[in-house]
Protein 1
Amino acid sequence: MKPPPLLKVSQWADNYRFLSRESSAEPGRWYTDRAPYQRGMMDAVNDPKVESVVIMSAAQVGKTEIINNIIGYFIHQDPSPILLLQPTLQMGEAWSKDRLMPMARDSKIFGDLISTDKKRDGGNTILHKSFPGGHITIAGANSPASLASRPIRIIMMDEVDRYPLSAGEEGDPVNLARKRTTTFWNRKIVMVSTPTIKGQSRIAAAYESSDKRQYFVPCPQCGHMQALAWKAVSWPEKQPEKAHYVCAESGCVITDADKPKMLKEGKWIATAPFAGTAGFHLNELYSPWVSFAEIASNFLEAKKMPETLKTFTNTALAETWDADQEGEGVEQHILQQRCEKYRYAPNGVLFLTCGVDVQNDRVEGEIIGWGRQYESWSVDYFVIHGNPALPEIWNQLQEKLQTKITHESGVKMGVLTTCIDSGGHYTDEVYKFCTRIRQGLRVFAVKGASQMGKILVSTPTNNNRFRVKLFMVATDTAKELIYSRLKIDKPGPGYCHFPAHYDDEYFKQLTSEKFVQSFEKGRTKYLWKKMRPRNEALDCRVYNLAAYMLTPVQLNMVEARLKARIEEFKAEEAKKAVEAKKTAAMLAKPKRKFKQFTYEELVAMARKKGFNISDED
């Protein structure tokens, strides 16, 4: 009858939590002191004055385990109805299988609280687990059905910046989840995520409405308390392995060896008034699992391209990406000024893809050559006029795709992967074409889907009467990548090369859209807006980007194979050159001159030599 001890989440984790081999690089007993900053984040849910906890953090600081510990605490210490909301149902299922079940199995304190066997019953499914005094439901922010009405006291929302704007037609999934807690006076709402784009980030907006806590740590030399910031990391030029932290107060050099002591003596300090929401911001500099040198090396690699720098800003620095998005676009004349003279696949091209856009009276497509680190060369833009409902236009397209492109070395290259838009009025014709030639060429049907934050190419479906694989392409994601690369002004990673024979119309279409701000249902939203009617060139590049993602190539192997083919080609050309030289030498030799004789002269000479030749002979 003795009641359980009054523990905070961090104390519960230290006493009872065991990390599983499937989900941790350091399996075994949990120690909060391994990353002391986690203590304040977890224990905030035990504060009766705190209703909401917001954690805007980097990717490598243990935020997923914080969620797991809070859920484990409430299952064992304070049984309640719990909801875990993931961006998608698939991610929810993965968390249940890969996180919850191993935790329940290896942390013996759960005993029989949660069933870990595979039998299914009313209280034990992948997305719903019952335990004495409560239950946990795992839902997807993309599924209105999984957010159906059920009273919830504890809501854990993971990666909220990856949630869709609306769960079907029901509205904002975050607000839908919050409404489930209305009847509980002691509710707890926890939001966790790495941030994304400034003005769109849910977690950043929630953090701004909190008391904005920062983790201050003492300098090991002078004792100055400071929150670690990226601008204070320094290293000698081209030597990121010597990266260190410089104290903001007195310039003391702080190394990775100092980090454990600093973290242990650190404390969370609020930088804004408290109004019921405890907010925590934490970047990767605090992580005991990542060194200053690793972060510096990652930064140098990331800054080569805008999209990788954006990822670094979001996932390492835990900051929103500010790209001056209002009216963001690319100027046509800037791209035209850097055109180059080539009519083949230049050196650097390792393989070719093609993107095809289907219009009512024509088919347009572009063949692009790809090199290392997403460097690309536009090789050929073509337009096939005709009615796409008739077979002639598709026969011409097949002939075009089977035509070899000459590499600068002389080697002939074929298109590896083609993506064709099936979202227009000729869906069946596209499906038939993909079915007809799928054995000979890697030709896929694709369809654009306009939604920010989605992965570029989704898992294919074949839910059509032709049973053709259909890939959904996130056009917003693709255009964001394309425009960021078009802004790169020096050849190298991500740079886009264009041939001099491309005309004005191509560049007008390629730069025909801008990323502008709008408002929808009271929220700021950014979208791609067409600034002129035609944008086929941009669409073809979007489908080329999808084709690149669908091309299963290992660049090292492709490069080695191409070099071997080039060497073979050079050897053949050298052999031909030798043969041609021999032939030319023979033809250049002076011809032997012969004197002509009459019949009588020849007979006379023969008889003079002693031959007895008659007139008959």
Protein 2
Amino acid sequence: MMKNNTKPRSWPSWINLVLGLIVILILFVKLSTPILSNDIWWHMVLGQEHLNTGSLITDHSAFTWSPATSYHAYSSWLADIVLYLIHESAGISGLLILRYAVFLGIFLLALHFAVKRGVANNPLTWLVILTGFGICLPSSIIKPELFSLYFMVVVIWLYYHLRATGDRAWGLVYLFPLIITVWANTHGAFFLSALFFAATIMGELLNLKYSPDQAMSERLRRHYFYAMFLCLPAILVNPYGIELLFSIVNLVLTEGAQVYSSRIGAYQPTSIFNVPPHYMLDYMILAMVLFVVLLWQKMKLRQTDWVVILSFMAYCLLFVQMVRTTYYLSPVFMFAALDMLRFKDKSSLWPNKNSGKYTLVILSSAAIGFLVWRFAYYEKSMINDPVRRLEAMQVVAHRFPHVEANYIESNLQGDRVGNLYDDGGYLIHRLWPEKKVLIDPRYFPFKAWIGDYFRFASEAKGIPKFLNRMKADYWLINYEKITLFEWFIKSNDWELAFFGPIGSVFVPVEEFNGATITSSEISNLPSGVQLSRVLNAALVRGNIDLAKDIREIAKENIDNSLSYKHLFLEEIDNIILGMEALDNGEYEKAAAAFSNTRFVSYGALQSAGIYRYLAAEAWQDSDYLHARKWSINAYLVTKDKNILDMYNMVLTDWHTRHQLEDAQIPDDQVEWEKFADLILQNRKMLESDQFLAIVEAMKNDSYAGDGNLFQQSQF
């Protein structure tokens, strides 16, 4: 192993102290988020069950009344018990402290390694650490995944610590099988560490042949390879044995991959999260730039470390696949970069007689300053009122159906809760075992019918059929699924019993007592996102007074420093204006007002519905020009263009062009033939064969002019 006897050259200690404190402050602010994961609740219930039953194998059908698979190899029992015990003893505060403790541990390991390698006095060290944290912050959500991040950091820190320490630390290599054993009983992501172990084995062999000065000593390498071999049986030390590994591979890489990638954000490509405040790809690019610069400085000395190169490339490829695998790159980059920074000879990253002593300070400070500005821009509420922010972190009623669960628990007798996927975990935590849920945020117990569920909840298709199949005693509908909420509002079989801050409880019409209770907790909502969802629901209900109340709540509760506040208030004004115009029968005015919305997604849907109604009225009067105009407006107003609105445009444009002279037709570039081709290319989306036959007849010049519009019966 190569030793570096060059004396360290450093900057004034206050510079690195300031930069280090900035990194710590940024980390503290970024971690000051409330519990956001729906998963943590059912994980804690599993932990409670493990303790109560003394079994590490879960009956996955015990928490739901719907058809569910009872047996599935899923081993997170250790994390589940830890989370449960922390919550039981210290509540939400304890879970928040756990997150800070995990990231403090990561910071201390990075700092320890920087000191060991003699690079803690280099300003670039703090940029490396900050970039590493930027990459892994999406994994700061409190659930078993948080433990996986820490175990991955420990694994990589231990590897580089062994290389830095040399032969005298050979015994530490046998910590790897122990770590893997604990990890395999904590979270299923342990299997992705195999990519790092494979890169180190291959890299060490390449180093031995091509870069012997970078290779482990013979003794250390031998014991390391022994430890890697022992990691294989270590994986089997879990309640399910080798079945666990097969289950993970089958679920994530095969049968569950399509469902996860299309329905769950964590399984989406990383590129879609390169938006504020995440900037995932930006951090990856910054890490790549720093890595290449450090690698180039090292390779100038003809020192190529294949372990560093192979592991970084492997996890960069993994990084871009899905959001859930991004945090593995963080420790791989961080410890490799700190290790490469130690090479000072002929390096422009350390001051010498020929380089400006403060050049690197300026560059590092500028980069960190930019990241500070970016953090500060999106963390104004924490900066302006940290006490209020820290208090809000401990409130769950603004993010989970806490108030709605209270109502169900106190007022409803049935034990079959109808609910949506994301809410199930919290409802299990609050209501089980007295009441059971339809579904919770686990895919595997419900895979036999989860496709039907997603069509019901996300696409609002086959709702009556699904409800007849899954006979709940009552339903809690989250406002996030506003189309489903609208169906229940308009249903003759269900009545709105409770209107809460997260969702509404619907009961069978024969059990309704004639009065809808509106929760006072709505007045405490601080988030524009959740207030906009409640506003959507108020719009669906046609409750103008509630919309006005929401405006006052938003004016009072939303932080004045948030740039979207005045835009949100303007949107509420437009919603109120549209609702009043609709009450007065001023449909065109109402549609125009509703269309001026961005936060309130249902405003656009309401506007499209009114335009369809106006188009149908004009169509009945053979006023094809206005029918065409309203059909175009209905198509354009919504973000997700409706193929039925496209069909209406085709039909009304055809009739307009056959009724009027070309000079009378507006020059708006809407021509039926172009959109007819699009419809035929996407014919599976057009559910009505009647509509499809009309479009085909138009294209074949056999259309007799007897088509009908798709009409909006209600809005």
Protein 3
Amino acid sequence: MTAVWHRLLFLLALLPIVATANDLFGQEERLPTVDEAIQLIADADWDNQQLLLDFELIDDVYLYQHRFGFTLRDTNGNVLEDFASYELPAGEPKVDEIFGEVEVYFDRLALQLPVTSVPLVDTELEVRYQGCIDKTLCYPPTKKVFDFPSPAPEKKAPAAPAASPSDSGFLDTLNSDDANAFNRWMSGHSLLWIIGLFFVGGLLLAFTPCVFPMVPILSGIIAGEDNPSAARGFTLSTSYVLGMAIPYTLAGLLVALFGAGLNLQFLLQQPAAIITSVVIFVLLSLSMFGLYELQLPAFLRNRLHQPGEEKRGSLVGAAIMGAISALVVSPCVTPILAGALIYVAASGDAATGAASLFALSIGMGVPLIIFGTGGGSLLPRAGMWMEEIKRFFGVVMLGVAIWLLDRIISDTITLGLYGLLLAVYGVQLGALEPAGEGIARLKRGLALVLALYGAVMIVGALSGGSDPLQPLAPMTQSAPSATASSTPDSANTHGPWQTLKGQGNLESALARSQQAGKPVLVDFFAEWCVACKVLEETTLSHPDVLEAMAGFDLYRVDITEINADSQAIMEQHNILGLPALVFFTPGGGEIPESRVLGEMGPERFIEHLDKRVMPAL
């Protein structure tokens, strides 16, 4: 009823216009159109991360404050900014015949709409407003759309389709640690070139810490065979890699459909996903100890069975393990993967997203296939040694399960589980058996060392330890002072770095830095992110890097815990995955095209500071 009543009042307000228009403007004059009465000019100031709007109003024309609306989208319709928190300046109070007590603007209105981050694609700004001629006419709600080109420099397309991959742009992009470089390169090349780039990039990613945990998993699958061979190793490792490619391909499709707001990396670290993966690895490890044999149900085995292919079920199992490994074991984001996600999220091109990430995963899998083929031929045939190797990889699977569980349990409990695993495995190897001769004596000695070290880790865990390399540290170090122990979790310090937890603490820290006029580097990290720890140990703590950032406020935002607050932080700052480093100017705006996604060495990081960050300060 309220909406109908407003429309009725609006029509009644128009009735006196027909009768009085000639008196007000003369017989030969007409009422000005909305574009004549309200002139709007829009511009993009990407350097200061804002959009500028300038309204020029003729005499006696005003704009309603409460009728404004702004939406920034990419060319595929994905909303980039809705400016929901933007506060309009105060207007003049007015009692309106339709809306009652309102605030309005006369003469001229200049607005600066802040943008959270500079878009890397073409955008369009939709502006909604409504104005009136005082005591004469109210115009209907008006909507205007302004197009803004991408601020990223344009890339020239290849001169000819037959150009070779030795193109310097291809090599420069492949060698880049900047995710935006991959995004810019893809925007100017064909799908075939993009697939080639990501295949070669996947080959390079195969040697990063995020992929290393897949090696023992694949080894365990091959070791589970009764008669491993090069041919069998090749078949199993290929099935594993194809299974690994499925989640990557689906990720490309989902990000293209739902945009950057779909944070797959974060979703896959939910406790339910981790616990499910832990259970699978435990079941797989128990099969290595001979408690049972994992295979497909009988009705599926009968359908799949063909002469000479009795192990078809294990191929499906290898593919399933590959998919699980890609989902949970390797959760880190690298520059080339982040570049693909940025491009796909902005373009909405599902085909490009699926094809590029499929090529990336296959490139990552090629070294695994080579390793699996060689490993299959090197493993011994059935016998006592084969049983020992199976049990060894069973222990490795349990170690992977504990490593996954570490993301949702305390470090102290993790240390205790590692200790229990080593102690039990040492006893199983014969630590408590009488010493034999030759190899048997050496085996007992190694078993005894494992069992003793496992026992030490258990004792360390019971005393509050958390470091596997120094399990007894709490028993050998003095108690922390009262001052140190009173430091809240929301503001821990690690040298010049200040660790923050929670969206409110981050916003307060950024506000303090802006008030002090200091540039800021924010490191978004999580304990379950392998590359985050590598980046912290090799680059962010490097003396040359710290010296280069002497004038910065350095914040580490801990989003290890899987909760709504961490999700809100990642959505607010458009964090596609971890690790992610975001630079801010002294004025509080993010420096365009300066983000670091994934690992970066100290020398490259300092070069990145000189080329991308310092010129903007």
Protein 4
Amino acid sequence: MLQTLYIENIAVIEKTSIDFNRGLNVLTGETGAGKSIIIDSINAVMGQRTSKEIIRTGESTAFVSAQFEDINDDVKAKLSELGFDDDEGTLIIQRTISLSGKNACKINGRPATLSMLRELSKSLINIHGQHESYELFSPETHIDYIDSYGGCNSLLDAYKEKYREYKILKKKLNEAVSDESERLREIDLLSFQTNELYTADVKIGEEELLENERTALMSFEKISSLLNKAKMLLSGDENCDGGVETVDYAMTSVQKAAEYNNEYEPIAEAISDVYYNLRDCAESIDDAIDSLESDPQRLEEIEERLDLLNRLSRKYGCTCDELPDVAEKLQARLDELVNYDKKRDDLITACDKAEEEAMNAAKKLQNLRKKTAEEFADKVKQEMKFLNMPNVDLVPQFEEVEFYAKGIDKVELLISANPGETPRPVAKIASGGELSRMMLAIKTVLASTDTVDTLIFDEVDTGISGSAAEKVGLKLREVSQSSQVLCVTHQAQIAALADFHYLIHKQIEQGRTFTEVMPLDHNGRKNELARIIGGVNITDAALTHAESMLKEYNN
């Protein structure tokens, strides 16, 4: 349950800490005192979207912290899934909002994200706001109530998986059969491109080899001159000795010296190595000169080949070395299009199978919904009767439709508030007070299946008064026997039924507005109830009435 809510610099609240309790916790206060700020703060710490405008004027940051005690197993499992540990049943969630728009979130002291807070909040708190009743105007939401009551989530998840597989295959099939002329045009283009590339027969590294060969052919005269010069320097001519012969003389001289002193043997061996290396080099140069030739025709062939490689590279938007891979990919696409009939038949078979499996899953879901919808409607109807709608009738209307995300069912709860009237859509006949009571009835019924420990009702008394308000209060107290309930209300009948009563009080000091939240004792509750009953001027009669209400509801 929510143990402590700490708020700092949110709107007109500078600093306040509220310790909530089990049972029915009621918050009251004058209009504009800041009751909605409490709900906004809880929404903020639960990771919901908020604005930097919520930050108190003159401050750069706002901060909200919520401490939960005795968290249930679902919350512990969600914490573990998100990578956090529960602190022996205690959970602390914090959020800092800055004017820069940045958020700093923590779960049990460790950094977290807003999405983590939102995910965790689903297992912690269920907030029913004063405008949520208008969801009943949208029939699309009615199926969610039935699914929640009937425990349909596992079947719904199974259906969604089958539906997703079917949609993927259906899309592929539609793409495969959408445009036959386009397929034929693509085959023609791919046939030309693959033929062009395979005929070119480009090899990886070919461009570099050709460029090297071209450079050599274009430099024939210079290479010939340089090689002959090197040959003369190494091998010599009739006028002078070459390097090889000179090194040979040096080698022989040192070898003879070594015969007198073996210390020179390493030098002789080193020169010997040089001699043989130079002789090998001289022979290689001779071979290179013998093989050297000017070949204008080969040079022309290389130029033409390089021109082709460059043209293909530009055409297909890749390097020359990537052309073979491009050819393979184009061929694979061509094979796919040429084998279109087989692919289409395979897709049809797979799509039919996926459709059948999705339909089977949808039927199982439909059967469970129909099995539980009547029971759900009857229980909601009984709750509404208790809430001063004795003649209400509630009928779940099913319509089978094409596959969509929630199955093959459209479900709408039709309502008749008066005897003899045909049940009709909620939007056409329900008043604001009836909407509030219907939503409270639904929440009451769903509370038995909801694992969330804390329920928050924000002004669910909209549009009701008198005995109906008392019945709403009694129902909230009943719900609070199994879940912690926080309720913002304007009704004395509801406030009088609270186990714990908090006053949201606004005051102005030195031109600034400050709001604080104070737990009320018996006298404080009596005065607040009298204010709600009698307005600004609290009379003795109002105080007496308030005292009698407290005694009646708390004996």
